[in-house]
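Sanity check record (used in CI):
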Amino acid sequence: MSKTERGVALVTGASSGIGMAAARALRRNGYRVFGTSRKPMANTDDGVTMLVCDVTDDESVQKFVDDVVSRAGRIDLLVNNAGIGLLGGAEESSAAQAKTLFDVNVFGVMRLTNAILPIMRRQRKGRIINMSSILGLIPAPFNALYASTKHAIEGYSESLDHEVRTQGIRVVLVEPGVTRTSFEENLTRADQPLAVYDSVRADAEKLMREIVETGDAPEIVANMVVKSANAASPKRRYTVGKAAGLVRFLRRFMPESFVDKNLRKFNRLPA
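Expected output for Short-chain dehydrogenase protein:
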């Protein structure tokens, strides 16, 4: 690794949205970047090498990691970004659908992390950035299962950081608010919809579309990924955007009743 290069970075879910923006931002910052997609796609014009990886498959994950090591010789940074959304009432999803969501958003993170930890341990150096969400800190009506996956990532990441810190490895969280990405791209809907929720679920989807349209650009999140990757003494979490920062502050310091009332108001639910 030359003095002008920051190291070798892996970014999952780099075919579009935040993942693509993060991969490109890291490349511009001096990293040799390998991105993943579920289907084969061409390398980017700015030098991001795209490889196929299914984060729900152990063999696919290990093959991807082995391929990167054979090409680059090391792994300095892992950005666990791949994920899917799920819109619907908590009781509207079958257990099988919930398992599928967790297999991508939680166990996919664990698979990649477990595959690269031995490499980073041998190097005595490495950083893992797990993409969380502001919904990892607050309730999310009609996004209960998605929020549950992000709450899980929060607890997993903070705990893992304490376990591997003495091995030269740090684990940090990046918490975007609402980001302007393709609404339909990574969103699934509940597989057992109930008529009792039809109206309020439709309102929740309308609200989500509205706030996505005015959300932060993916590049803002990407810049925070670069910042957290390069920090000499990283923080546990990096909240992205003014709205997300405000939500984090309110959740942490304001009375529970105040937060509850304002969350229902924001989600256009009756008091």
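The mean pLDDT is 93. If this sentence no longer matches the regenerated tokens, the check is flagged for review.
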